[in-house]
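Design a sequence for this backbone.
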């Protein structure tokens, strides 16, 4: 085990509950990080603070595992995993077969993500620490779900920041290349867990899609950056008069059509437009009662403001805009509110915040770690 000593007073955030130690707080390291990432963290006076995973190549130098001195072994991970599954059992409804099982720091397992899609588990090992314990973690899940296929999708950019190469492939069992059939809040979907965005489906939007379903009766709905069409499907299932989905991806379009077919949605109610969202909004002259605008996280700040302004222009009087964003160090909640304000001014619309939009119950966040909140938005009412 490594011994990592911090600079004076740098232990304060950990003592207050934060799960990360940044590289600038580290004073010295005893041991070889090439042999193990597990470390014992000491303050400047040599007093024990916690145990965690150390990575000398990452800006997040230490990811806290425990503030105790217990052994970090297979039994340790087994207990954390069982605790996480117990929480999901109490929160996820029986009519949903796809959700997040493990959500990194929120479940005390920093760097680990596990999603379940009916009979398939999809794993992401994002830190060097969980990568080191991959064999134990996979075997624990194999014991818990012996009939499930297990697939790795550690092909995310954040692995590069940890000095890890992207990895994707089967860990156990086989998966139908045609997609995995799941159910979300009673609605069937087909998910491409092998090559689809994220781990195949934007699971963190589930509660927000359900909110749309409850508001959509008799409304005309526009779903921008629609991907697999999950928002549009929910709108129509909620009684929407019509729904239009806009996305530039041909792959997304094909999956969207499949999802509409398995829900037996008529083409007279739903229409898909394969186009650039900005171009569509500038050319389209229709008005919509509800617009969902969920742009990709890669969108620049000025483009986020522009697309929200264009969407507001297409809203009917007394319309609702589901404005969604992904937070990070370069885009905060304050940036979101500022962008909404300027977008409304540019569109000459008076908007009010009606209801916040967050990730679902299966994406827990520590109260001491607001950086763990990624999905954020608001339902806006526009006069």
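Sequence:
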């Amino acid at each position: 085990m490594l011994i990592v000593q911090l600079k004076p007073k740098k232990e304060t955030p950990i003592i207050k509950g934060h799960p990360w130690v940044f590289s600038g707080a580290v004073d010295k390291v005893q041991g070889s990080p090439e042999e193990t990432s597990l470390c014992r963290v000491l303050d400047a006076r040599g007093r024990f603070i916690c145990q965690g995973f150390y990575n000398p190549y990452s800006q997040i130098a230490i990811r806290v595992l425990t503030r105790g001195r217990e052994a970090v072994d297979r039994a340790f991970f087994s207990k954390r995993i069982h605790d996480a599954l117990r929480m999901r059992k109490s929160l996820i409804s029986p009519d949903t077969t796809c959700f997040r099982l493990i959500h990194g720091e929120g479940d005390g397992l920093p760097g680990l993500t596990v999603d379940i899609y009916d009979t398939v588990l999809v794993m992401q090992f994002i830190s060097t620490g969980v990568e080191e314990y991959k064999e134990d973690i996979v075997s624990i899940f194999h014991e818990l779900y012996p009939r499930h296929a297990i697939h790795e999708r550690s092909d995310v950019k954040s692995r590069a920041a940890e000095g890890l190469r992207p990895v994707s492939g089967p860990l156990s069992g086989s998966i139908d290349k045609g997609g995995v059939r799941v159910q979300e809040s009673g609605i069937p979907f087909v998910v491409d867990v092998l090559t689809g965005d994220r781990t195949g489906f934007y699971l963190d939007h589930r509660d927000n899609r359900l909110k749309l379903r409850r508001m959509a009766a008799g409304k005309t709905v526009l779903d921008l950056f629609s991907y697999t069409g999950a928002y549009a499907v929910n709108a129509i299932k909620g009684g929407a008069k019509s729904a239009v989905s806009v996305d530039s991806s041909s792959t997304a379009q094909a999956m969207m059509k499949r999802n509409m077919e398995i829900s037996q949605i008529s083409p007279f109610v739903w229409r898909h437009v394969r186009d650039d969202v900005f171009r569509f909004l500038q050319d389209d002259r229709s008005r919509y009662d509800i617009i969902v605008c969920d742009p990709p996280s890669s969108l620049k700040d000025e483009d986020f403001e522009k697309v929200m302004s264009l969407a507001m222009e297409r809203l009917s009087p007394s319309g609702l805009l589901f404005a969604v964003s992904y937070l990070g160090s370069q885009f905060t909640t304050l940036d979101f509110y500022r962008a909404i304000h300027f977008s409304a001014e540019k569109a000459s619309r008076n908007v009010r915040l009606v209801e916040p939009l967050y990730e679902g119950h299966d994406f827990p966040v520590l109260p001491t770690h607001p950086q763990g909140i990624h999905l954020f938005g608001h339902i806006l009412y526009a006069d």
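Residues 302 and 339 are 8 Å apart (CA to CA).
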